[in-house]
Amino acid sequence: MTFEPTFGSTDKTGSTRRRLALALTSATVGSTMLLSGCAVANSDNAEGDANAASDTLRVVLQQEPPTLEPCESNLTSTGVVDRSTITEPLVERNPSSGELEPKLATEWSSEDDTTWTFKLREGVTFHDGSDFTAEDAAHTIERAVNSELGCNVEGYVFGDDDLTVEVVDDTTLTVTTAGADPILPLRISFLEVVPSETSDTEKVREPIGTGPYKLDEWQAGQKITVSAYDGYWGEKPAFPKAEYQWRDEGTVRAAMITSGEADIAMGLAPEDQIGDLGVPYPNNETVALRMHTDKPPFDDIRVRQAVNYAIDKEGIVASLYAGREKVAAQLVPEGIVGHNTGLEGWPFDLEQAKSLVEEAKADGVDTSAPISLIVRNAQFPKIEELGQVLQEQLTQAGLNVELKLLETSQHLQYQVRPFVEDEGAILHMTQHGNQAGDAAFTVGQYMETDGAQSAFGTPELDAMIEEANAATGEERQSAFEEIFAYQNEEIVQFAHIMHQTGMIGKAENINYEPNSSTGDELRLAEIKPAQ
After folding, report:
1. Among 68, 196, 225, 451, which is most exposed with the fewest C-beta within 10 angstroms?
2. Whole-angstrom Cα distance, residue 175 to residue 164?
3. Any residues with CB less than 8 A from the CB of 471 and at least 6 apart, and which?
4. What is the pTM of this model?
């Protein structure tokens, strides 16, 4: 596609020359240090860190981000640091109301749901001091959606169709879609803006943004430090500095809160002994198993049905999660446009599971073929125990399942396309959070034939998704409801397990109310000292 207008020099009058972000190489940078106990990583004196200056907000995550590349910020491990903290979108969704709110764009409109006009905020600068203009917004869209960079946000949010982007002037941008798209501004909210000089052939590891905090240093395997950006266009954040560290064990993260070594701890559960400092919140995450149907035994729908019958979802919720979670029948929870209230979770029926496996075996399906159950370490509380339970239950159904616990960077090779190929059947544990409030952001990525996180699809389902994406109002709701029912009846790519609730640890000296997006994007500027 063409990009209008054609630009010459990318330097801007009166702006500081930008320092280009470092290119992310394919090799993993550094290695994660093996740490024990509750001491803060890279700390010469744990007591000193526990009494760190009150101007530094200390956050402990479940794992180190694999990258801070802005076009990968829809991945939880990246977005929790990037989104609306280091980088910002044109439009931002309010996680409480679901309404779209101005960010780097102040207004947007369309007469036909095809060509959208965005008016941009004036007086915004990037962390290197250079001015934000429509040129940067256009490059961000071109880079993430139209280039060959392979950004996860492209498949997750925009699919195959490119966008036509035109800079009208420094503060005006038009975006035209291939067909009517009534939720284009919502899709745009997933794009974190980067400078126009940012490479569109290499991903970056350390971004330059416009957010309230700028990246100071990333010590691989140890910590990430950020500081408040003096030139920020909005309200100055309460904490001048912030530091991210990471611990796999929930009990360790909780202990860092109770001992005064951290102010916010992510991904906790009551069993982590966080006590009254644990703050529960409703999130938008759903846990499911995705079955890759390119190899036996998952190339037979009876085996995929057997997996669903073999999992005791109610027992898992009761025993591992003390009844806090809710058995899932689809990939989106209540409150998401398209959620089908008429669907119920598959019943636990081990005998039926065994019967289906035996039936498939009798017809020549290799039901003894090895299955790799792919689980990411520390992705959410008790995930390792959940993996072990699932392995046992599926083994009882007559399947040959091997549990593989992987770190984030390894896990991504199974999570998104292109998937690992030199392996047998894959059963991937997915934790999906619909951050946008509309099922389009689930079915496009997870159910379309070539979706970024889809392992199976059909022309019939693809056509249903295309029709639903163009619908509005009640027709849109009904169309997506039908898609979720069709998945369970005709496709069975997924074995849904549970809709989750979240919990963070919060020190007594911190004032912050978590919301449904907290696990995906922890907006540091919203965190303040307690009065």
Report:
1. 225
2. 6
3. 479
4. 0.76
